[in-house]
Amino acid sequence: MPETGFFDTTRIVYTERGNGWLDVLGGPARLLGEPGFHLPTRHTLEIRIQFNDSGVSRLQDGTGMMGPDPIAFDPMGPARLTPDEIPLLRAVRTGIRTHPCFPFATGIDVVVTHDIPMFSGILWKEPLMAALHRALDSAVQHPQTASSASPHRACWFAIDTGYPAPPDSIHGERVATAALMGYRMIAELAGLPVRTVRRGVVVIDDPTWEGTPLNIPPSVWEGMFRHRVPESMTGDMFLSLYGGLSGGIGAIEGDHPYAVRAATQFVIGEAARARFLRAFPPGSHSDNDQLAALGELLYHSHAQADILGLSIDPANALVSLAMEMGPAAGIHGARLTGAGGGGTVAILARPGSTAAIAELCRLYEREIGLTPEPINLGQ
Q: Is the pTM above the cut of 0.90?
């Protein structure tokens, strides 16, 4: 807990709570702004904020993982944060900087408490920043921003594969960069006006898809552009031919061969799949035909992610076992969660399929030799 005297007792403290998110669909597309499809878990977080007159912002880690003392930070600092910055501090700074009312005229004191395990396949940064935005909304009387967390689904399960290595974000970032390369090529093919800002950075005048590949319909991609976008291209070749990207996750690696066509197809398809999943209201997944369609969507997404090197062998084995057990056991679909490299698999099944999930875990442990751990989604 924060030390006594952290908050000014004469001022209001604004508190917001949330849950961890299981990132079922979105992956690299989420890095480009696609909200994806999330399921809340029983892991909780709480964020408390208070404005101060000192002009200095402070972060207190209520879990004690960052130590007992608050950390002073400058929200007005460089937008690109340093790689060695503490992840919790990075998330809080980013949350403040992305609020509609930023910059603020005062300092902000922040306390964060959560029980979300790191490297577990459970998202914590996004729900933390969403809760921070809601708290800032209350503090400045700004209209509430919408939360992209999805309601509970009775037929969703999640399994940690037991794979010990933490997720590696570089593969997801490369896929997102390759998709932006594909979008730049599509802009050229579509005759959209492109203006070079500097080497590596361009501006695309795109009123149709609003400046992102996420809004390109899969039918348009397949019918008009897929066969005209090259399978791969090095970063140096792309820069020499197209000048740069209209957005970016990181610097383009000159000698890296980017899988442009596959990445663009994956991101366009993933955005469409996530929109499809979000369109289903709570309780609408009971029809077997709907479950079959949604399950096929998950399997297809996982296969595409695996082609791009985003999956890992234990996750592939768990997804294959889920497919083998199939609808007869009440299991309709499975997919590696997140942007790749992690070890949590989301399972779509009929309500009441707990025994089937336990059998799936038993088969997986016998075949792979790793101990899986079902993740409680609060259902």
A: no
**Token pair belonging to 143:** 């209209």
Looking at the structure, tell me whether residues 199 and 139 fall in a common domain. no
Residue with tokens 């992840």: 87
Instruction: Compute the CA torsion angle 177, 180, 181, 183 (nearest 10 deg).
Output: 160
239, part of any domain? yes
Q: Structure tokens of 132?
A: 């921070």
256 & 295 share domain? no
Residue 7 in domain? no
Q: Are residues 259 and 285 in the same domain?
A: no
Instruction: Identify the domain containing residue 91 by its residue range.
Output: 14-150
Rounded CA-CA distance 359/355 in Å is 6
Task: Let me know if residue 156 belongs to a domain.
Answer: no
Same domain flag for 232 and 303: no
**Residue pLDDT tens, the chain, 379 long:** 444 578 888 888 999 999 998 888 877 777 777 778 888 888 999 999 999 988 899 999 987 777 788 999 888 766 555 555 688 888 999 899 888 888 887 899 999 999 888 666 788 888 999 999 999 988 886 433 333 333 334 478 899 999 875 555 678 889 999 999 999 999 999 999 999 999 899 999 999 999 999 999 999 999 999 999 999 999 999 999 999 999 877 789 999 999 999 999 999 999 999 888 887 654 554 567 778 888 999 999 999 999 999 999 999 999 999 999 999 899 999 999 876 556 899 999 887 788 999 999 999 999 999 999 988 675 5
Rounded Cα distance, 325 and 128, in Å: 36
What φ, ψ does residue 64 adopt, rounded to 5°? 80, 0
Could you tell me the CA-to-CA distances from 247 to 32, 69, 132, 202 in Å, in that order?
8, 37, 25, 8
The tokens for 281 are 């209201």
| Number of structural domains in the chain | 3
Q: Phi and psi for 76 in degrees, rounded to 5?
A: -85, 5
Task: Give rounded-to-5 percent helix, strand, coil for the chain.
Answer: 40, 20, 40
In this structure, is residue 68 part of a structural domain? yes
- Residue 288's domain is classified under what CATH number? 3.30.70.890
Q: Where are the alpha helices (DSSP H) in 7-165?
A: 28-31, 87-97, 125-140
Instruction: Give the DSSP per-residue string, 150-188.
Output: PPP-TTEEEEE----SPP-THHHHHHHHHHHHHHHHHHH
